[in-house]
Amino acid sequence: MPEIQEHSKSICWTAGVVAAVCLLGVACTGGDPGPRQGTPAWFFEAAKDNFAILDYTKTVEQLKEAARAEGDLGMEAGVWRFVLTGGLALGYDELADAFVKGAAVNDEMIDAFQPSINDYRRRTRVNAIQFAEGIGPIEKLLEEQETVTLNVPLPSGNNSASPLLGSVEAGNTVDAQLTAMVDQTLTRGVFSALSTLTGGKEFSELTQESEAGSIQASATDLSFGVARLMLDVSIMFDKEGLNDPKIRAHILNLAQEWAAPHLENEELAERVEEFEFDIENERRDVEGKRRIKKDD
Questions:
Q1: 238 with 285: CB under 8 angstroms?
Q2: Vertex 77 angle, CA 74 and 81, to 5°
Q3: What is the pLDDT along the chain (296 residues), one digit of tens a residue?
């Protein structure tokens, strides 16, 4: 009987040691488990991961979920999503236009290019609408602030145009290098959107500020930049592009509303002049009148 008791005690002691070791191992190797899956914080971290590998579509989807959060996290995710969708709309529009031009100069490529045209037009539309609908966080960011901080990560790469676009425009296929061309064009679009929203900052300046911690913009530059980018997006819905008069008119009205407070700002005189010229051409096109060339 004593042997059995001693044996039982030995088993219990061993089990206790094993359990303690296991718990210690979990504590040592588990570390911070991070945000709970399915929470806004988890979606935000997932968006960062997908952005790093240039999976922009997944990034936008995850930022939409992250933007549901209250406070700074939701604001940061919403602002990032606004900038990203604007940039993607620019990038996909440029891709679609390249294939349209290529099909126009090489009849033999019409059938081969049409699926790409359809796909890039569809993606342009989706991102353009999300961009226009995602203005809320920018409005909140601009409330009573003279200088705003854009905690928006930059994509890897640069803002140069892919040389392959020219080949497509000439009616040639670039199947083996298509992914590289698409990635570069979308990255360029994101940089272009950020430049517009920050008063025309160059790639090098955006990069330097991002590496230093965050991108800065005056409230005036950001507000007028929204107007300019809205105008550029509205043009995508013209007869030669997405051909949707209702959405075109809606986004055009948003552009005018955002520009209105800045039309007499002398510091923005050059940009305002260009904006008014372009928006007048939009009005003329909507009314079926001849567009005005800058040298007319």
A1: yes
A2: 135
A3: 444 444 444 444 444 444 443 333 444 445 667 889 989 999 999 999 999 999 999 999 999 999 999 999 999 999 999 999 999 999 999 999 999 999 999 999 999 999 999 999 999 999 999 999 999 999 999 987 889 999 999 999 999 999 999 999 999 999 999 999 999 999 999 999 999 999 999 999 999 999 998 899 999 999 999 999 999 999 999 999 999 999 999 999 999 999 999 999 999 999 999 999 999 999 899 888 988 887 76
Q: What's the rounded Cα separation, in Å, for the pair 150 and 194?
A: 9
* Tally of CA atoms within 13 A in the half-sphere of 232 that contains its CB: 22
Q: Which residues contact 118 (CB under 8 A, 6 or more apart)?
A: none
What CA–CA distance (Å, rounded) separates 62 from 57? 9
Number of CB atoms found within 10 A of residue 276's CB: 12
Q: Are 73 and 40 in contact (CB under 8 A)?
A: yes
**Residue type, position 203, single letter:** F
How many Å apart are CA 236 and CA 32, to the nearest integer?
A: 45
> Could you tell me the pTM of the whole model?
0.87
Alpha-carbon span 38 to 68, nearest angstrom: 12
Alpha-carbon distances of 77 from 61, 86, 140, rounded to whole Å: 11, 14, 13
**Cβ proximity of 157 and 187 under 8 Å:** yes
Q: Distance between CA 115 and CA 101 in Å, rounded?
A: 14
The residue whose two tokens read 């107007």 is 227
**Alpha-carbon radius of gyration of the chain:** 26
